[in-house]
């Protein structure tokens, strides 16, 4: 009696990452963030430039700017080298009705210290600034705010910066009247080189402003890769229940396996997604699903075959036994492999997928 065992293995290889700037999320439920610190402030009356009293109140499980009079205050990351990594920086900001004329929000990357005469964040920097006293949003470039576009004003908004460390370009955008799902109402493309000197020593991420603003739910993360976008598309958190090793639907298939084979991570579909096999005369037909854009996604599919019993490791044969492909849907194809097993009594076939 022939026994051929069928298995599936997924490996992660050379995942992009960094030990430089810290990725984190902060909802201020525990008070001040350990990943952010206050910077010096400007008192409009005296332009002292000295560190003012702490006017950030965390009692509401957020960071509320209170009793500031006519100056601005900022918090910035304790790490200063975000220029060197790709990142997505987001924060939810609220500008309350009746807020001070100083209730403008400053959000971006750079020094993040207030300077005279109006307490804007010191350059070099780039970012975005919804105004409290109007519906305008400005972009920040090298300490200067330029009015351009209409979004912002009173309400709760989500601000976002996507930074590409290779091109040194930022996409900054605002979701006005944010309801939990980000949809940009306006934004700008800004070049870090135009900020006149942002480098690895002063590329903090900052947020702040004047009287009457509230900041919450800050996140600094790696931009969504192909897998992350796929998980988010199913309503999963790529860093939580949608992480690669999680099994959101408890069907015995990790999310990453669902991703590479065309599964739905929210339903038990293992029986229809896992590879299948059929014995024919002298061969075993092994069929699996493969993404049509596997190369673009950094996925490599191949087989490892053992025909000498189970005591020895299998030989990686890749696609050597591939004989046919067929259409599954717009994103996947079925791959048929015909593996000779004449004279084989015991062995295994293993689908191996690597993600780079």
What's the gist of this structure?
Helices cover 5% and strands 44% of the residues.
Q: What features would you describe in this structure?
A:
By secondary structure, this protein is mainly beta. It has 2 domains: 1-16 and 225-356, Immunoglobulin-like, CATH 2.60.40; 24-224, Jelly Rolls (Sandwich), CATH 2.60.120.200. It has helices at 226-233, 255-261, 270-273; strands at 3-12, 24-26, 36-38, 42-43, 56-57, 63-65, 71-77, 87-95, 105-110, 114-115, 120-121, 125-130, 136-141, 144-150, 155-164, 169-175, 186-191, 204-209, 213-221, 276-280, 283-291, 299-306, 315-318, 322-327, 332-340, 346-355. Strands 2, 5, 6, 8, 15, 16, 17 and 19 form an 8-stranded antiparallel β-sheet that branches. Strands 3, 4, 7, 9, 12, 13, 14 and 18 form an 8-stranded antiparallel β-sheet that branches. The relative contact order is 0.17.
Look at the structure and give the CATH class of the largest domain: Mainly Beta
Q: Would you identify the regions where 5 or more consecutive residues have pLDDT less than 50?
A: 12-19, 47-52
Number of domains: 2
Tally the helices: 3
What's the arrangement of secondary structure elements?
Elements lengths: L2 E10 L11 E3 L9 E3 L3 E2 L12 E2 L5 E3 L5 E7 L9 E9 L9 E6 L3 E2 L4 E2 L3 E6 L5 E6 L2 E7 L4 E10 L4 E7 L10 E6 L12 E6 L3 E9 L4 H8 L21 H7 L8 H4 L2 E5 L2 E9 L7 E8 L8 E4 L3 E6 L4 E9 L5 E10 L1
Parallel strand pairs: 1-26
Antiparallel strand pairs: 2-19, 3-7, 4-7, 5-6, 6-19, 7-18, 8-15, 8-19, 9-12, 9-18, 10-11, 12-13, 13-14, 15-16, 16-17, 20-21, 21-25, 22-23, 22-26, 24-25
